[in-house]
Amino acid sequence: MHIRGDHAELVVGGRLDVRSAADARTVLHTAVDDGIGDLVLDLSELDSWDATGLGVIMGAHRRAGRCGRRLVLRGVPDRMQRLLVATRLHRILAIEGGIGVESLPRV
User: Which residue numbers delimit the STAS domain (predicted)?
Assistant: First the structure.
């Protein structure tokens, strides 16, 4: 997993899973704490995430809210969009451009 960017926009790539969760959590929390306004997470380079990785995203979302910021997801890959819809998290998280639930392939 790799994360690059600053306190306004981060690009997350690779795998966001149990092995990378602690490092990702540290980077995301620092970015939330050090900035103002929206924090954009570009997930277009993300290969996969597991429940732990999704928990890291949700933790950053909650922390951003407590800091008066908003976490915005950008470039969410289709299979991860399906997971957000299945867990109904697409209703809670801010997703740039939204998720067209009707257009997602059924699994």
Answer: 1-107
Within 10 Å of residue 107's Cβ, how many Cβ atoms?
6
Pairing of strands 94-95, 71-74: parallel
Cβ-based neighbours of 87, under 8 Å, separated by 6 or more: 54
In angstroms, the CA 64 to CA 59 distance is 9
Q: Which residue has the tokens 């790799």?
A: 2
pTM reported for the whole predicted model: 0.86
Pair 70, 38: CB distance under 8 Å: yes
